[in-house]
Amino acid sequence: FVLTQGNPQWEDTHLTYRIENYTPDLSRAAVDHAIEKAFQLWSSISPLTFTKVSEGQADIMISFVRGDHHDNSPFDGPGGNLAHAFQPGPRIGGDVHFDEDERWTNNFRDYNLYRVAAHELGHSLGLAHSTDIGALMYPNYIFSGDVQLSQDDISGIQAIYGPSQNPTQPTGPQTPQVCDSKLTFDAITTVRGEVMFFKDRFYMRTNPFYPEAELNFISLFWPHLPNGLQAAYEVADRDEVRFFKGNKYWAVKGQNVLYGYPKDIYRSFGFPRTVKNIDAAVSDEDTGKTYFFVANKCWRYDEYKQSMDAGYPKMIAEDFPGIGNKVDAVFQKDGNKFWAVRGIEGQAGYLRGIHTLGFPPTIRETEAVSGKEKKKTYFFVEDKYWRFDENSQSMEQGFPRIIADDFSG
Amino acid sequence: SHSFPTATSETQEQDVETVQKYLENYYNLKSDAKQVERQRNSDPVVEKLKQMQKFFGLKVTGKPDAETLNVMKQPRCGVPDMAQ
Q1: pLDDT at B5 over 60
Q2: What is the pLDDT of residue B10?
Q3: What pLDDT score does B75 carry?
Q4: CB-nearest partner of B59 from A140, A141, A212
Q5: Which 8-state DSSP code applies to residue B76?
Q6: Is the ipTM beyond the 0.90 threshold?
Q7: Chain B interface includes A345 (CB < 8 A)
């Protein structure tokens, strides 16, 4: 978070606000409600209180204006600059101006008034723009369906006004840090040749054109998918990716969620009602078999027959001995390899290799490429890895080995 | 082949205008006419562009590449990112 230069702040934490005029885009009640909710976001995590007044000078005056409105910061017509606000202080200090040349909404459509007001009020209270993409104080307009203060926003406002009066201090979501060695994932899947990692509201992806991993909101591609996905896999020959959360799943083709989704996992895949959610899923392009990992069991679904294979569920240890009894995420890359990722919060360093994604130089490519007879599958769990021989369906002698020993660098 | 569309666009004259305006509005670039003339090789613009790219976690090149232009064209708040 960044405080406004000079650390301006309100001396009195009991502030008033007034809506000077209303946009014709929304009903007065909808505008009142959006602005009230925006103030509540900030009052709920700080000692600040906000009281609406209907006449005279309030601490924070709110208005809808267009073009040059005589405050030395003219608006620029539709798009671009949506609104601005002034730092705490007398007269124009704290005031919020919305660009009336925008269309203001209370839904997904541009631009959600509640979302923009929540951001501008951060300025009215003394915050500047944050580089944290998950923060409300990030300068670009991003609306991912819900409006919530991130931990970055909360830390910022509490750095100015102190903690809230609530006995339990409210906290906000943290934005995942791409190189955090303690990072665990909700789901991982290939998507048209790329690999996408999912965590909370965000996706991360790497591809050869952008050396740094890209982190952004899932809603950027799939606005109607929920946050907190739990599993995902690609059915490559249908050009379809399926995302799972709870007992529901969505199928997408590119950026389009297919019609008729979400569906439930019971009718579509034949899971019993005792299965409440999926931990991880991966589909083997060669065999058309999809493995679902649920707690300590795994199910195998035949994409061609569209039914579960007999003999499942099995314990994970049966099909994938040594992997342990819970998988966070799994994906398939480069033919016959499965990568299984397992993580417990607080385990340091075990994911070190995963974010290189380019294969570690010491993997013998010929092994990986030489086709069926030389099938080897590498499983990485914490700081160890196993090599599983597909032909003999058994773990090779001498494993597990320490990742760092073999995959140095 | 199937792949996600990645934003690509050639730098064109209006992009130069976009960059200039953006850096004036949000990164304190001084806006006098001579500046515009020199912007192809000028330092202040390159420095401000680097500031902006660093702020948004983009590759810090000092060049208005497609990724940078993409971010500049997104709707945003009018308060500058860098203090006046």
Answers
A1: no
A2: 54
A3: 97
A4: A212
A5: B
A6: no
A7: no
